[in-house]
Amino acid sequence: MSRRTATAAKLDATATAPTARQVNLMFRAFSDPTRLRIMHLIRDRELCVGDIVSVLRLPQPTVSRHLAYLRRAHLVTGRKDGLWVYYSLAAPDSSFHQRLIGCLAGCFDDVPDIARDAQRAGKVRQSGGCCPR
């Protein structure tokens, strides 16, 4: 059994199947370009809202609204540290969720907005970002 198959089998054995509502929320989350850009940014490293705003060049209320939607869909989690909240991708809780995240990692690298976001994210990381760590 391959490592990937073993991981998927382990997840299937411990996870519950997502409800129709959860699947709908996840698909709707993936259908919005801004939410895809956010998830792509935080797929490897957590970021605070201020850094996400800087990279996406969107107003803070817009970014916060999209993050709230992603939290409701159980696709991202927030970790509060003092005044700051750091966001990262949520650990997959079903094989369906795991496959969606896998698609995020491999399907969107050629999208121009995501490529530009990655360049800006690198600059934000080099500068230390806006949030103290």
How would you sum up this structure, described in words?
The protein is mainly alpha-helical and 133 residues long. The chain has one domain: Winged helix-like DNA-binding domain superfamily/Winged helix DNA-binding domain (Arc Repressor Mutant, subunit A, Orthogonal Bundle). It is 62% helix and 11% strand. The radius of gyration is 15 Å and the shape is globular. The termini are far apart. The N terminus is likely disordered.
How many DSSP E strands?
3
Mean pLDDT: 85
Strand content: 5-15%
Give, in order, the helices and strands: HHHEHHEEHH
- Look up the CATH topology: Arc Repressor Mutant, subunit A
Number of domains: 1
Name the CATH homologous superfamily: Winged helix-like DNA-binding domain superfamily/Winged helix DNA-binding domain
Taking strands numbered 1, 2, ... along the chain, how are they ordered across the largest sheet? 1-3-2
State the separation between the terminal residues, measured CA to CA.
41 Å
Please give the CATH class.
Mainly Alpha
Shape: globular
Computed Rg: 15 Å
Which range best describes the helical content: under 10%, 10-25%, 25-40%, 40-55%, 55-70% or over 70%? 55-70%
CATH architecture: Orthogonal Bundle
Number of helical elements = 7
